[in-house]
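Minimal example, chain plus beta-D-mannopyranose.
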Amino acid sequence: MRHLELPSVSSAATSDLMPSPLVRHRANPILTARDVPYHATLLFNAGVCRYQGQYLMIFRNDYGRWGDTTFDGTNLGLATSPDGVSWTVAAKPIIDLNTARQLAQPLLPHRDAKHEIHRFYDPRLTVIDDKLYMCFAVDTRHGVVGGIGVFHSLNQFEVLTLTTPDNRNMVLFPEKIEGRYVRLERPFPVYGRGGVDRFDIWISSSPDLRDWGRSRLLLGVEDVPYANDKLGPAAPPIRTDKGWLTTFHAVDIDPSRGKNGWEKTWKKRYHAGLMLLDLADPSRIVAIARQPLLTPEAPYETGEGATPETDGFRNHVIFPGGMILDEDGIVKIYYGAADTVECLASAPVDELIRFCFEG
Ligand code: BMA
């Protein structure tokens, strides 16, 4: 991989690498809890896709009280848009905790999902052959697991598979590759890692979306010059003629940080990264930008301006969850900012590809 011979972050920053082509939308944040007709506090980390002639978003809503880290719960909300910028939120959540427990129960046949499942969150949407799929994370009594399900209609969701713990941040590729479905994922091993986060991106495949295997390491923390903590997938990949273009999240820790968001200490910073994977063998990285695609800089990302009431919940967080290539060659990237609001940034697809090689 090209970046293995690359300079450190500080020397890269002073060199003449191509700057990120991504431009933040003027209307940011494009969707917040204030747009939701039911109890909502933090609206972020949405999955977004184009489906049945419109833009469709499923967002995470952590509801409680501003500034208070004891939340009442989390549900998933639905929003639609004709242009990907102005959104209308459906009257009720699309999946709440009770529904999630019922939906997952068939895959937990010898357990009571009511006791087993505590939280269902971080939706990621992919359309394959006109069918809408959603990956998600589930906090259970026995660890965090990733899941994949299919919408038979927007009112009918079937959970197809759950992973073993600990895994999450799963995203599906939008088509089968060599006859198999493919996903990116982020297991989080503890044993052997010296008690610190060192989480990497893995790739697996499946003949039927239920049974997964052939897992391989795709990208390690040490491969990303601006990460010193952990990595994971972000938005589901898009097809381009040069390869699968995909974002990821990359975290660095600034130990000097004190109060920074609603928690007493939050020392992490989440960037968006970008890479290009081989079309026929997506476990092969064709190119990866050595600089971040997006780093928290705008007030709604650093958190100081995330809401009129308070800082963001977790300041300095950018977490892409949706990536759409429109007919005009512009890629829209949707991301959660400060774990508080949902934002949009865009760039021409050709420039994003060039950024993977020259950025
Ligand atoms: C991760 C997940 C994400 C979140 C991020 C930053 O562990 O919970 O949903 O955006 O932390 O807080």
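The radius of gyration is 19 Å. Residues 349-358 form the longest helix (10 residues).
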